[in-house]
Amino acid sequence: MRLIASRVQVFFDHACDLLEKLDLPPWQEYKKAASVAFHDVRVATASSFKFGHLTFRPVFILLGIILQCLAVVLQIILENSIYHGWRAAKEFYFQLQLATMWFIRYQKSLSPSAIYAEVAAMAAIATLWLLRRHVRKHRYYERTMAWYEIRKLKLLKRYNHFVDQVGKTSTFLALMLPHLLYFTFAAIIKRLLPWLVTYLATKTPINAFIQYFHPLYCTFLIIGKYTQHLRTYTVAEAGDDDSKSSSKMTPSNVKRQQKQKAELEELRKATSDILKYWVVYAIIVATVRTGKLLPFVGHVFTVAGDNVAKGKRRQALLSKLRFSSKFVEEISLVFFTWLRFMPSSVTRQEKSSLKGRGISPIDIIYKKFSLFVKSAMSSSASLTNRAAGNGWLSWLVGKLDSLLSILVLGRAISQKTKQKVISTAAELSDLIPAAVTLFVPGCSSYGVIYVSLVVPAAYSIKSCEEIGKKSSNLETMESKVNDASRFLRFWMIHALVTWILDSFAPILAWVPFSSHLIWLLWAFLQLEASTRRIYGWFESEVEKPFDQTQTLQTVKKVIAALPSNVDVQKDTSSDAAQAEKSKKED
User: How buried is 160 (Cβ within 10 angstroms: 0-12 exposed, 13-18 middle, 19+ buried)?
Assistant: First the structure.
């Protein structure tokens, strides 16, 4: 007990020491401080409430006014809605009653056969709805597609195995196998359903769509994508001048450059493909037009019915050498369908036995035609190249440069204009061999074909070779695509000008030296500045509203300038009035 009492006493002493060290305030002092704090809190709360009341009182008043106005508006809307809704319901009931009465009278006026036809149609609709519900319930469509995919995979597997076996024997035959299958399939369709091929080729616009309008549409889309690409990244580069000046590349700039390279690569491939098609199309058209101009071979290229031969014996002989228009249309449909839409592989896969090579129809024809165009251009331009090296052409260019330099010093023209003239002269130097045909009687048409088709095809081939070379430099890629876009614009203008010239061909045939004027027109369109300026005008006309286009304004001015019947009547009445007045005076 004494030990416990001693321990308690020690604990009590320590507690007293701790209370002395904590320095607790007296109760009276603590009570006084608490009353002062409560008073301060009460005063602060009152002043805060008064401040908030003075601050938000205008807001509450404004909200009250707005809510009052909203309540008035809602009341008016509700009253009018109920009123007009009731009127609409009454009108609907009246119209429904009239429609029901009309339907009943109409049904009574029908014959029994018409009533049976209506019942049959309603039964057919109900049957189709039930059949659709049954098919969706039992998933017949999904099961059919799954079965089709399985059969397709098995057939493609057999085809791949067959291609591998053929590739081990002959790689060329394996590469040509899809094309052989296509032409075999076309021959079978022609044999079994000749009327279908004839109808599609002669009675529908599918032939013109495949070989002409669809490539034009693709060309227009590529030009639009490239223009949008330039606008997007020009604005982005203008806003990133500070980041370009810094030595470090930010992640956003790296990501933007990667996206720009991907878009340029896609544009490069699309531009190359469409330029190859225009080269092939131009050479085919040039070959056909040149063949029609030749004395004896032209009868083969002339479709039967285009020109009527004189004499029955001569007509019978020439009809054997000509192709019918139906045959030509059918061959064109099969050929251009193969050229435009036939893939390099039926399965869209590269075979190991073919060593990763695939031949598309465009590549097959383009490789052959490009060699022909290059040889034709090199042979026809050999005289020009010699003259440019050490002949009169280099002398003429030098004299022209000296004359333009004098005009620049005299401030008659600018340095930019001088460069344009020099570049125009350099571009027109390739047309010198074709200019000879203008001075040879009867040969200007050959020069028109050369200038309008062969020379643009040669330029397009050079552009394809340039953009075919891959480059990691962004500026180089953009420069190549920009140069190639010039020829895309030219082929769009070529289509429009060709359509206009073909439309006015009967009139131009009576105009003297019309072929010379057409030659000069195509020579003018060959220039890069002309191509970009004309296509820019065409693009602005397309983007404008129709009533604001310059073409419509020009047509309106021409129509207004023509004499009208009203003016003639006015002139006639004024002449009659003057005649009567003169008679009265006499």
Answer: middle
pLDDT, average across residues 396-416: 67
| 548 token code pair | 């604001």
Residue 516: partners with Cβ closer than 8 Å, 6 or more residues away: 438, 444
Name the least confident of 180-189, 313-322, 511-520, 529-538.
313-322
Tell me the two tokens of residue 508. 């131009």
DSSP symbol at 411: T
The closest alpha carbon to 362, from 449, 286, 433, 275, belongs to: 275
Q: What are phi and psi of 324, to 5 degrees?
A: -75, 155
Residue 417: name the closest of 398, 430, 401 by CA: 401
At 304, give phi and psi (nearest 5°): -60, 125
Q: What is the per-residue pLDDT across 215-224, written as a single tens digit (0 to 9) for each?
A: 999 999 998 8
pLDDT tens for each residue of 170-228: 777 777 788 888 889 999 998 998 899 899 988 888 988 998 899 999 999 998 888 88
The answer to whether the predicted template modeling score (pTM) of the entire model surpasses 0.85 is no
Residue 408 dihedral angles phi and psi, to the nearest 5°: -70, -40
CA distance 499 to 184: 35
Residues 6+ apart with CB under 8 A from 534: 493, 525
Contacts of 461 (CB under 8 A, 6+ apart): 279, 370, 373, 374
Q: How far is CA 557 from the centre of its chain?
A: 32
Nearest to 378 by CA among 441, 461, 448: 461
4 alpha-carbon distance from chain centroid: 103
The sign of the torsion formed by the CA atoms of 212, 213, 216, 221 equals: negative
- Helix, strand, or coil (residue 304): strand
